[in-house]
C-alpha cells in the first residue's frame, strides 16, 4: 500500500497586491502555505513579500487563469474582480473563496440591500433612485451612494438640499452604475462584526468592535466596543453569522454597522476579505483575522477569535497633508517609548490621506491603550514635531 499523504501544502492564489495580501503572508509563512500573487504593479505592498507573483490586470480573464494555473484555491485582497470572470474560474475547477454569488453582495450595494431585506436584517431605509425627483420623494436629508466602486467614503454624499444630489448622479453616470439613497442615520457610533466562515460551514465570531471614521476613512478601532450592551453585541454577531451562512461566504466577512442613538443596530455594508476593523486581532486575538481568512479559504479548522487582552486599540497611520511623516525613522522613539507597542507598516510611501500602516496597543486600561496607540500613530504621521525634535 503506498501512502497518498503529502507534507506539501497546496498553493493559494491571492488577487490584489495591497496591504491585506501582504498581511496574509505572515500567517501563510507560519502555516507553510505557499501564496501566489496577482499584483497590479511591480513593487506594490504585497509584491514586496510574496516572491511567487505575476503583475497584471485583475479584470482580464487570461491573467486570472495564468495566476490560478496549478492552484486549487483563489482568494482576494479586494472585491473588484468581475463576477463573470469568477464564474469562469469556478467552471475551470478552481475553488473561488469567497465565491461569486457571495462576493456580488460586497461589490454592489443595491444587490446587498435587496438580499439583506430578504433576510430581515435591519438596514437603513433605502431605495435606488434615478432622478432628483426620486431623491425628493425619498426624503431629505439623505445619503446617496454609487452602487459600485466606492471605498473609503468615495462614492458617498450626504445630501441636505436637492441641488447637492447632482454630484452623485454625475459620478454614477461617469462610472456606469446606479445611485442608492439611504436615510441619514443618526448614529451614536460605528461598529463592526467580523466572522470567519469555512466551506464546511464552521464559523468563528470576533468580539464586536467600535470604529471611528474621519472623512469616510477608518482611523481608530477599539476592541471590544466599550460599553456595548451585551444584547446588542450578541445581535451584531448573530447578524454577521446569519449573513455569512445565508450568502455562503468563505473567508472573513466584515459587517459594518451603525449603533443608533436610540439603541438599535443597522447594517451599513459588507466586506468579504480581511478588514481594517479586524487589524487589532493581529496582536489582540488568539488567531488573527488574516490567519483565520487563510484557514477558512483552505477549509482548515478555524482558530479561536477570543481576545488575548482586555483591550486592544488600533490606530491607522495615514499620510498627513504635508511631508512631515516618518516611518522607519520614527521607530526608535516609538519603540523606546512603548516596548509593548506593535507596529505594522505596509511598505508604502507616505502620501496625503493614504493608509501606510497601523499600530496596536493592548492592555488592561483602555485610556492607557488609547493614549499609547494615538501617540505612536501621530508620531509616525509627523504631527508631533519634526524628526530631530
Ligand atoms: P464606503 O464604500 O466608502 O466604505 P460606506 O457606505 O461605508 O462607504 O460609507 C462611508 C461612511 O459614510 C460610513 O462609514 C459612515 O460614516 C457614512 N455613512 C454611510 N452611510 C450612511 C448613512 N446611511 N447614514 C449616515 N452615515 C452614513
TrEMBL record:
Under InterPro entries, the record lists: ATP-grasp (IPR011761), ATP-grasp_carboxylate-amine (IPR003135), ATP_grasp_subdomain_1 (IPR013815), PreATP-grasp_dom_sf (IPR016185), PurK (IPR005875), PurK_C (IPR040686), PurT/PurK_preATP-grasp (IPR054350), Rudment_hybrid_motif (IPR011054)
Output the GO biological process annotations, alphabetical, semicolon-separated. 'de novo' IMP biosynthetic process
Biological classification of the source:
Bacteria, Bacillati, Actinomycetota, Actinomycetes, Propionibacteriales
Q: Gene encoding this chain?
A: purK
Q: How does it assemble?
A: Homodimer.
Stored PROSITE patterns: ATP_GRASP
Pathway in which the depicted protein is active:
Purine metabolism; IMP biosynthesis via de novo pathway; 5-amino-1-(5-phospho-D-ribosyl)imidazole-4-carboxylate from 5-amino-1-(5-phospho-D-ribosyl)imidazole (N5-CAIR route): step 1/2
According to UniProt, the reaction catalysed is: 5-amino-1-(5-phospho-beta-D-ribosyl)imidazole + hydrogencarbonate + ATP = 5-carboxyamino-1-(5-phospho-D-ribosyl)imidazole + ADP + phosphate + 2 H(+)
Q: Which residues form the ATP-grasp domain?
A: 113-298
Entry's SUPFAM superfamilies?
Glutathione synthetase ATP-binding domain-like, PreATP-grasp domain, Rudiment single hybrid motif
**Function comment:** Catalyzes the ATP-dependent conversion of 5-aminoimidazole ribonucleotide (AIR) and HCO(3)(-) to N5-carboxyaminoimidazole ribonucleotide (N5-CAIR). Catalyzes the ATP-dependent conversion of 5-aminoimidazole ribonucleotide (AIR) and HCO(3)- to N5-carboxyaminoimidazole ribonucleotide (N5-CAIR).
Annotated source species? Nocardioides exalbidus
Query: Where on this chain does ATP bind?
Result: 109, 145, 182-185, 190, 268-269
Q: Which NCBIfam families match?
A: PRK06019.1-5, PRK06019.1-6, purK
Q: Provide this UniProt record's keywords sorted from A to Z.
A: ATP-binding, Ligase, Nucleotide-binding, Purine biosynthesis
Task: Tell me the protein's name.
Answer: N5-carboxyaminoimidazole ribonucleotide synthase
Amino acid at each position: 500500500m503506498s501512502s497518498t499523504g503529502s507534507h506539501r501544502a497546496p498553493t493559494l492564489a491571492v488577487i490584489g497586491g495591497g496591504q491585506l495580501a501582504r498581511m496574509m503572508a505572515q500567517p501563510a509563512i507560519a502555516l507553510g502555505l505557499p501564496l501566489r500573487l496577482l499584483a497590479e504593479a511591480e513593487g506594490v505592498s504585497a509584491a514586496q513579500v510574496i516572491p511567487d507573483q505575476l503583475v497584471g490586470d485583475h479584470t482580464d480573464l487570461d491573467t486570472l487563469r495564468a495566476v490560478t494555473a496549478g492552484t486549487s484555491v483563489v482568494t482576494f485582497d479586494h472585491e473588484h474582480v468581475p463576477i463573470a470572470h469568477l464564474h469562469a474560474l469556478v467552471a475551470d475547477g478552481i475553488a473561488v473563496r469567497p465565491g461569486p454569488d457571495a462576493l456580488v453582495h460586497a461589490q454592489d450595494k443595491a444587490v446587498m440591500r435587496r438580499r439583506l431585506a430578504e433576510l430581515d436584517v435591519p438596514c437603513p431605509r433605502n431605495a435606488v433612485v434615478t432622478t432628483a425627483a426620486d431623491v425628493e420623494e425619498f426624503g431629505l436629508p439623505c445619503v446617496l451612494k454609487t452602487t459600485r466602486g466606492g471605498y473609503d467614503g468615495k462614492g458617498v454624499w450626504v445630501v441636505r438640499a436637492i441641488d447637492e444630489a447632482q454630484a452623485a448622479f454625475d459620478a454614477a453616470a461617469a462610472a456606469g452604475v446606479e445611485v442608492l439613497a439611504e436615510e441619514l442615520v443618526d448614529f451614536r457610533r460605528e461598529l463592526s462584526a467580523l466572522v470567519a466562515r469555512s466551506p464546511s460551514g464552521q464559523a468563528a465570531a470576533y468580539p464586536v468592535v467600535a470604529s471611528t471614521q474621519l472623512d469616510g476613512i477608518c482611523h481608530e478601532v477599539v476592541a471590544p466596543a466599550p460599553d456595548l450592551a451585551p444584547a446588542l453585541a450578541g445581535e451584531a454577531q448573530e447578524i454577521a453569522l446569519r449573513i455569512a451562512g445565508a450568502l455562503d461566504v468563505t473567508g472573513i466577512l466584515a459587517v459594518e454597522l451603525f449603533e443608533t442613538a436610540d439603541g438599535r443596530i443597522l447594517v451599513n455594508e459588507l466586506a468579504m476579505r480581511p478588514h481594517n476593523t479586524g487589524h487589532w486581532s493581529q496582536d489582540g486575538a488568539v488567531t488573527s483575522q488574516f490567519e483565520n481568512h487563510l484557514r477558512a479559504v483552505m477549509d482548515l479548522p478555524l482558530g479561536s477569535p477570543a481576545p488575548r487582552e482586555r483591550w486592544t486599540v488600533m490606530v491607522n497611520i495615514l499620510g498627513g497633508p504635508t511631508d512631515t511623516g516618518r516611518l522607519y525613522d520614527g521607530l526608535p522613539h516609538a519603540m523606546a517609548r512603548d516596548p509593548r507597542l506593535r507596529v505594522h507598516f505596509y511598505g508604502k510611501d507616505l502620501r496625503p490621506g493614504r493608509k501606510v500602516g497601523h499600530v496596536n496597543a493592548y492592555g488592561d486600561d483602555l485610556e492607557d491603550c488609547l493614549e499609547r496607540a494615538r501617540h505612536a500613530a501621530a508620531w509616525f504621521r509627523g504631527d508631533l514635531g519634526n524628526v530631530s525634535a
